Amino acid sequence: MLHLRTKKKSNVKKRKKDALASVKRNQRLAYSAQKNAATRQLSCVSANRPSNRRLAHSIKASLRNIEQSGSEVQKDQEKQDRAVQELVDHLKSIAPFNKRWQVIETINQGTYGVVFSVRDVVTKVYGVIKVAKSMANEAGNVSAEWEGFILETMFKRSETASIVRLLDKGMLADQHGEGMEFVVLEKAAVPVKDFIYEVDGVYRKYRAANISLQMLKGIYDLHSQGLLHRDLKPDNMGLISREQPIALLFDLGMARMYTDGESDIRPPRTCCPFRGTPEWASGHAQKGREQTRYDDLIAWLYVTCELFANEREPTQPLPWTYRSNTMAHKYLKSIYCPARYLLKRVPVQFFAVNAYLQTGKKLH
């Protein structure tokens, strides 16, 4: 009897411990999802930039979610939208920020903050300002502060890194007098796809290859400083100008240090929420595993395949685009899928690159 009582108490303790661990894990996942949403809303790229078909696909999914949600949720959303618009109007009324940055247009706005295209009233330099809204969970502030820290650190160590520059940072007050952090970034104004599809034939292939190599250089610059991007895609890079077709990476809100303070590789986490954009993320990352340099390089390969497409808005940019079948999605990103499905438009040299990435030793 004593043995049974002891065993019963042990089981009760174990269940309580498991329940507590589950609650903590769900809290971490929820916070990670909020940081993902904040990073999306504080992107330098307008939500209207993706192709018409991609927009239609995302709108269809969002409408489905709205239909499933109740009227109370919709009312809350309308209330949030009004509050966001009030914030946008307030920020425009107090410009120029820091007596320098005049607002030109709104790029993005949402629950976590606002992104404006701005111009320095003195030097006439164009930039992008990210204003993070102060909230209870601080997801927006954390994302903006982290991105500003990364950019500041990067250019103290390497002034030639293929990453946008940090031009200014500081604090603003919202319409209620609460503090809001802001960062001003260099504006890579020309979308890479627009630049590539201005020409035809061999010149288009040259531009695609050149931008792919410049993107790889930006990834190398991040990795050499112990950082992973974790959200590489065509919309997260741009050119300084058509006269200076230098490709720069931006939107580093999802970046993560993969080394510790002494340049040693950090041990992988057991609980690892997915960060990134599923279409360009590696199959390894989508399984919820710790991302490494390997995952950034796989994302680079996927982006390169899209840059070599024959038209601006191809029917299917990547083999898994617009597919809702999860099993097919996993197979097409696995080592068992024939490479010709992914690499059908790129130069043949990329078959060797793909073979190395798929079968070589994974980078930690």
Automatic annotation (TrEMBL):
Gene3D superfamilies: Transferase(Phosphotransferase) domain 1 (1.10.510.10). Residues 1-17 have a biased composition (Basic residues). InterPro entries: CK1_Ser-Thr_kinase, Kinase-like_dom_sf, Prot_kinase_dom. Residues 101-364 form the Protein kinase domain. It holds the Pfam family Pkinase. Residues 1-21 are annotated as: Disordered. SUPFAM superfamilies: Protein kinase-like (PK-like). SMART domains: S_TKc (SM00220). One of its GO terms (molecular function) is ATP binding. This is Protein kinase domain-containing protein. It comes from Thelazia callipaeda (Oriental eyeworm).
